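We now fix the convention by which a protein and its fold are recorded. The integers have meaning only within a learned vocabulary of local backbone shapes. The record below shows the convention in full.
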Amino acid sequence: MSLPAVVPAPASIEAGSGAPFRLSAATTVTGERDAAAALAEIVAARTGLSPAAGDDSAGIELRIDPSAGSGSRGAAESYRISVDEASVVVTGADAAGLFYGVQTLGQLIARDGSEWTVPAVTIEDAPRFAYRGVMLDVARHFHPVETVKGYIDRAAALKFNALHLHLTDDQGWRIQLDSRPELTARASATAVGGDPGGFYSKADYREIVDYAASRHMIVVPELDMPGHTHAVGLAYPELAEDPTISDEMRENIRDHGAEEPRSGMPYEGTAVGFSSLKTRDEATYDFVADVFGELAAMTPGPYLHFGGDESLSTASEDFAAFVTRASDIIADLGKTPVAWHEAGAAAGGLADTTVGQYWGFRTPQDGAGEKARAFVDIGGQLILSPADAVYLDMKYPPASTDVAVPELGLTWANGPTSVERAYSWEPSDIVGGIDDSGILGVEAPLWTETIRTTADIDAMAFPRAAAAAEAAWSPATGASDLRTWASFRERVGALGPLWGSMGIGFHPSEEIPWATE
């Protein structure tokens, strides 16, 4: 008997020998209210049925039991599903585990003629890594609250538990802070290509944080510095250096058809590396303390991301001094600092809790592996985001059939990036000398130089986000028959009808045998 399709692959799944459980208008749900509401939403979207609350033992039971599930992280986020002809029981070790069990149950629902069924099956599941993230860049193109909430829904269904918001860049500052009001007053109105900008009010940000929490996700806000800070100079020119334009950058700007950045003028292009804060000015560190102090008070999650990437206009010694002080400021706020892997060049001075985010290639180049490993050497951990695997903004390969391929994305990360390449990497193989104990988790970033709408997000993220979800949640590559590309492409293809019912406008890649109903 073939196993039902589940993504990400569970730690253990066994098909039962009996008849399936049949859903009907009379199906009842008992147990935890929040999980029942999440399940009702999935069932209604998938089947049109509306399961009612009740105490019928021949229905669906949702419960929490700390002994449920197991894995490298103990019981946290674990769940168990048991299905037979008479009943469905989903048991979470905690509220998050129950939520993830409900997401898996939604994937198990299948059409059988005019009926809807759940196959007889037993699943024991737990995550491999504690941190399973997606990143949305709202600086290059601004995305409103409803779009962000929709992305949270889609990510949570794949058991991601962190939303990294890239809130600032050369093109705009996207978060209201009372301590520095000119940031949104003067530096939020524009975006790449002259498109409209925008920003989140403090109420907007609170709405996003609360909505994420209802889906068992934290928000990881990023204020990128000391580079990627041209927008800061629009609001507080005394804090920013004049743009530094190298010959190579000038050529890059010309290739992208944009004007060169100028002090005091909004930047609408996509070149990087020309901006820097004044890292030797004490007023800059007053600014860093102000913005991160206020952001810390607004963010219940443990992480604050201070960027640190592509600071090409900041001298090496000044960069090291800056990231050292920024990490200390954040650590003193009681938060865990996060920085892109370039900050590892100054690892000897970083707060020893600092988490590094690796965005180099699957085979590290130009010292990126050494910089990433330095975070682990000082006692921190790594988030892995290999750009040539899980950067969701990379173009898809051209199709050999009549499948329409999105005309979106970039190619600099060894692109285009196929779904197979997004899947076929093993986290423990990326940075030499680092095993699972040094890996906090996996994150799939979506940069938005070319991404303007929810439809654009869906097309670029799906199905490749599902590949990243499996790297983050499931056992190591090759640890089971399910953790292979051959298995994944079949399983993710089976999710096509579910994704369609959820309104996800995924790219129907020709690499995947998509199921139809």
The longest strand covers residues 218-225. The mean pLDDT is 95. The longest helix spans residues 282-298. Residues 58 and 87 are 5 Å apart (CA to CA).
